[in-house]
Design brief:
six-stranded mixed beta sheet; 145 residues; 21% helix; 39% strand; 2 helices; alpha/beta; two-stranded antiparallel ribbon
Length: 145
């Protein structure tokens, strides 16, 4: 499982002119699923999303996690994160999970996140989404499990 996470001041996802998810300060995570990913990978990813210390403390050092700042978590499915771009100019998607597996793993991640944290919003699996955000920093990380 791979995620691009961004510390944001606010972020939202729209599908067909309706907002499916929105947060204020927090983390927006674009989530890619590989064919071999399991629930254990999703659990490890969620732990990272909630506990990674990417928010500034009173001294301005990245010492606080999402839960400590009481931030929102916006989860957005994005199979293109699993693309292979090493050869040629057309991305290959053999590294991405099948739609059924990807959707099941994303749904599992969302369900576990909602059990663990009250401020969870999501995009919509398989939809043409428009994502808006104000990256805070900018602070962006790639996380893999």
């Amino acid at each position: 499982m791979r995620a691009v996470i961004q510390r944001v001041r606010h972020a939202s996802v729209d599908v067909d002119d309706r907002t499916t998810g929105a947060i204020e300060q927090g983390v927006m995570a674009l989530i890619g699923v590989a064919p071999e990913d399991t629930q254990a990978h999703a659990d490890k990813m969620l732990h990272k999303l909630l506990k990674l210390r990417i928010f500034g403390d009173e001294a301005g050092k990245m010492n606080l996690n999402l839960q400590q700042v009481e931030g929102g978590l916006l989860l957005v499915p994005q199979f293109t994160l699993m693309a292979n771009t090493a050869k040629g100019l057309r991305p290959g998607f053999d590294g991405a999970a099948t739609p059924a597996h990807g959707e099941a793993m994303f749904a599992y991640l969302v369900a576990r996140a909602q059990q663990a944290w009250p401020r969870v919003a999501t995009g919509e699996f398989g939809a043409d989404m428009q994502v808006s955000l104000l990256n805070d920093g900018p602070v962006t990380f790639i996380v893999e499990t």
